[in-house]
Amino acid sequence: MEKIEHTTISTNGINMHVASIGAGPRAILFVHGFPELWYTWRHQLLSLSSLGYRCIAPDLRGYGDTDSPGPAAQYTSFHVVGDLVGLLDGLRIQQVFLVGHDWGAIISWHFCLLRPDRVRALVNTSVPFSPKTSSRVSPMTDDFYMCRFQEAGEMEAEFAGMDTGKVLMKFLGYRDPNPPCIPKETGFVGFPDPPTLPSWISQEDVDYYAAKYDKSGFTGPLNYYRSIDLFVPLTLFSFLFILFVRRVSIGKW
């Protein structure tokens, strides 16, 4: 772990914390999910850098030691992909192998759609591609966790009344195959606790995550869910604008 370097890169109007290790022409960009950090990829950073890859794992906007812009509308895939493209530009990397997990998988899918010229190959886990990402997905219930995350400040207040490490373990240790729900009657405190720590995470790891979330809070990460419905209309607008510019440039309009 001590071999991993930590730097701050200015990109797309924010300062982004980046963990990296290795050198060479083959670069891998790791994109974490919720509720995670660059730290999710610590083992992969060490393992793949030893094989000759340049490995890069940022804290996404709103997470850890990266800046957290205020409005939820500044957490769309367009913003986050822009952050990552700016990161690659700052590191003078033209193309990467892209690896995503959870929310990082969604961002990685959209990265490939928006900037395929910067991607050599994609490896995604946990979240399949969906052409219409939305918070209004099956199961359609107000208790579904994505719906419960929509109201600004509501879940933050519930999390603030609990130990941060316990909040994180409720998410990281969740193993029920059914969609996670947070009934308003019981709140997040009623969300099931894992009986034991999973084998892949230690108490030391939980403490690291908790210390970072105690500092940066949960609003930034939750804003990804609050801006999710903006992606489709923004994508449509962008493609129409590009079409308009191209037709104007060739004198069709």
Automatic annotation (TrEMBL):
Keywords: Hydrolase, Membrane, Transmembrane, Transmembrane helix. Residues 27-129 form the AB hydrolase-1 domain. It holds the Pfam family Abhydrolase_1. The chain crosses the membrane at residues 224-245. PANTHER family: EPOXIDE HYDROLASE. InterPro entries: AB_hydrolase_1, AB_hydrolase_fold, Epox_hydrolase-like. GO terms for molecular function: hydrolase activity. It comes from Linum tenue. This is AB hydrolase-1 domain-containing protein. It comes from the Eukaryota. The keyword Membrane applies. The keyword Translocase does not apply. Belongs to the AB hydrolase superfamily. Epoxide hydrolase family.
